[in-house]
Amino acid sequence: MFNDQIKQFEVSGMSYKHLTIKEREILMFLRAKGLSIRAVALRLGRNPSTISRELKRCAGNYSPSKADNDYHQKRQNCHKKRLLDSHPQLRRQIVHYILDLHWSPEQITARFNKEHQWCVSYNTIYRHIYQHNLGEKYSSRGDTGIQRHLRHKHRTRHSKNTRRHREVQTDYISIHERPGFINQRQRIGDWEIDTVIGRTGHSILLTIVDRLSRLTLIKKVVQKDSQEINKGLVELLGAIPKEFVHSITPDHGTEFLHLDEISERLGVTVYWPDPYSPEQRGTNENTNGLIREYFPKRTDIDNYTE
Questions:
Q1: Contact status, residue 46 vs residue 54, Cβ threshold 8 Å
Q2: Is residue 157 in a domain?
Q3: Is this structure's pTM higher than 0.85?
Q4: Measured distance between the N- and C-terminal CA atoms of the chain, rounded to whole angstroms
Q5: Measured between alpha carbons, how far is residue 66 from residues 40, 53, 78 in Å?
Q6: Cβ–Cβ contacts within 10 Å for residue 200, how many?
Q7: Which residues cross the membrane (predicted)?
Q8: What is the pLDDT of residue 9?
């Protein structure tokens, strides 16, 4: 029987990364017949170093079943447990923040970083949520479900290469030309801007967020057009000391088509992101998500005073 199996291995070769139980049995058989490590490796289609390491790991009388069991046990033990599986108190804390305080994973991560409590990214929290790893009790989207409390409701993040791009202005400075110290948030005065839309045809909110300090300023604008937006920007940015107004990174909405007027009037540089790439303005996007908790879609912003 072993001779037939040996011939089968010699003809077909093996593509397994680790030795199988059959290979281990043949290894024992061939070594018992006095074959060298190199000869055994040749028969099994293995590197001689693989056979040598296998025999060193199993000093004394070689047992295929014991060697195979030891290998699978080590494989099982080498898998690192997920963070929330190892720390149930962290799991409970995250559930509390989401369900009771209505915090987003981004806010939770920021709190942990500030207090040096846990080293956990917001992507990890999202992953645990969508893999239902915060407890079956909170898995659904129902009244007690965690996913129901998420601000972005599991929206898929798309690569910019998979999106259909609209036409962009030719007279603009790309975000890819933005200096590294701005990208790394090393100074105050680099602003991201966008709008929060309420009921169609009614007032909107103009929001600007400083990339470093996260200072957020909000202006009620009577309608969504470039003229009104520019008026709002002049009012918001004009009230800030000039040394804290260096650049703005807007959305590609039509309401921002005439920011060249703002650039000339306030002496700021406008850096345009790629079309359909909100992740390039993540600070403002996340802030607008927070604002949405107080001004849900179709809210009539006309009913609110500044």
A1: no
A2: no
A3: no
A4: 88
A5: 19, 15, 18
A6: 7
A7: none
A8: 53
Residue with tokens 């290979």: 23
> Cα–Cα distance between 237 and 266 in angstroms, integer?
8
Average pLDDT, 10 consecutive residues per value, the chain (306 residues): 53 61 90 90 89 83 86 67 77 86 83 79 82 64 56 49 43 84 94 91 92 95 91 94 94 87 90 86 90 88 86
Among candidate residues 29, 53, 78, the one where a domain is terminated:
78
For tokens 């990339």, the residue is 211
Indicate if 61 and 184 belong to the same structural domain.
Answer: no
- State how many domains the chain has: 3
CB of 151 closer than 8 Å to CB of 129? no
- C-alpha angle with apex 183: 177 to 186, nearest 5 degrees? 125
Asked whether residue 156 is domain-assigned, the answer is: no
Residues in the chain: 306
Together in a domain, 69 and 87? no
Q: Which amino acid is at 189?
A: G
Among residues 118, 149, 180, which one ends one of the domains? 149
The residues near 209 (Cβ < 8 Å, ≥ 6 apart) are 191, 192, 193, 215, 216, 217, 283, 284, 287
| 116 lies in the same domain as 218 | no
Q: Where are the alpha helices (DSSP H) in the chain?
A: 2-12, 21-32, 37-44, 48-57, 64-78, 83-86, 88-99, 105-115, 122-130, 180-183, 226-238, 259-266, 282-292
Q: Are residues 176 and 297 in the same domain?
A: yes
Residues 200 and 296 in one domain: yes
Assess whether 281 and 218 both reside in one domain. yes
193 in the same domain as 99: no
Nearest partner of 300 among 225, 152, 219, 196, judged by Cα: 196
